[in-house]
Specification:
The chain has one domain. A hairpin with a 5-residue loop joins strand 2 and strand 3. By secondary structure, the protein is mainly α.
Length: 320
């Protein structure tokens, strides 16, 4: 009888495991995503990520030309290393996806987060994402250094009818650098994390309110291409909730409000095909997560990223 009981237990265990394919996908994806993140760290350390290498070059030139900016330049240059907020953000999200399943509303969301982190850690995509801090350094140089993978500030502002939100505006809205806070007047404004607040102090930037930024923001890689991959599910929910509250506030006053993310802003120049493909897949997933068949379709398309080779970004195009 004892062997029969053991066999029965094993049968029930295997049956339960087979009946939860998403749980199996999660367990299979965890080591794959971990390996990709570790490979990205090595690529950053060895100078194999194109825009990370350019960040180091730009940082040296801006510091030499404007020594009074040395402190904030040093902070921004950390993004070229595994100690920067972009890379550390991926590490923190992976730790949550691996060890804190209670933070996710569904198993599907947890699995999708592992896929998003895997994509975000691709050196080509990560290099594209680094164009934002890189172009902050370019703007600090007052035209001495060209922007990379993006149109000039004047060109993109004109194309988008955008307002000038000051030096560092490419990082506004990115949860790796700050967050939206709500004041006693009910208005939400951008607050930098830590030393990034030096940008407001050094450049005398005015407080940026979401009601203005949401309508008149300029192009950034994060907001227009990388938001799904470089944000946690909780950060994305906060963004959606804030945008909805802002829209309702405008509607209550009989005013029109267009979402900050309703359409891509003009400004990208020579970003990788991987960024374009990843954005298409991310948009498709967001529109179809309400049913399981659509979720399976999205997983199938995202699987191409798991099988793609790891390369570094090439062929950057610059614009002053």
């Amino acid at each position: 009888m004892q062997p029969i009981k053991v066999l029965s237990f094993l049968f029930v265990f295997l049956l339960s495991a087979c009946s939860d394919p998403v749980a199996q996908q999660i367990e299979q994806q965890i080591p794959i995503t971990k390996s990709r993140i570790e490979a990205l760290s090595q690529a950053l350390t060895s100078g194999q990520v194109t825009n990370a290498a350019l960040i180091n070059q730009y940082a040296q030139k801006v510091t030499a030309a404007k020594p009074e900016l040395a402190d904030i330049v040093k902070v921004i240059a950390r993004d070229a290393t595994p100690t920067g907020p972009m890379y550390k953000g991926l590490m923190d999200r992976f730790d949550q996806a691996q060890n804190m399943p209670q933070l996710f509303s569904t198993k599907e969301e947890r699995y999708q987060e592992l896929l998003n982190i895997y994509q975000a850690a691709d050196p080509i995509l990560f290099s594209d994402a680094l164009s934002d801090p890189l172009n902050v350094l370019a703007d600090m140089s007052d035209g001495m250094l060209p922007r990379v993978n993006a149109l000039s500030k004047a060109q993109s502002m004109q194309a988008n009818g955008a307002q000038d939100f000051g030096v560092g505006e490419q990082l506004i809205g990115n949860p790796n650098y700050g967050q939206w806070q709500t004041g006693s007047n009910g208005l939400s404004f951008w607050e930098w994390y830590g030393m990034y607040a030096l940008m407001d102090n050094l450049f005398g930037s005015r407080r940026v309110y979401y009601s203005d930024w949401g309508r008149y923001r300029n192009y950034s890689y994060y907001s227009d291409y990388g938001r799904t991959r470089y944000s946690s599910p909780s950060s994305l929910r906060k963004q959606v909730n804030l945008d909805n509250r802002t829209r309702k506030s405008f509607e209550s006053k009989g005013q029109k409000y267009t979402s900050a993310y309703a359409k891509n802003r003009t400004g990208a120049s020579s970003i990788s095909q991987k960024s374009k493909a990843a954005q298409t897949n991310a948009n498709r997933f967001q529109k179809t997560t309400t049913n399981k068949s659509a979720y399976a379709s999205s997983n199938k398309k995202n699987a191409s990223f798991r099988n793609s080779r790891t390369n570094t970004s090439r062929g950057t195009r610059r614009g002053k």
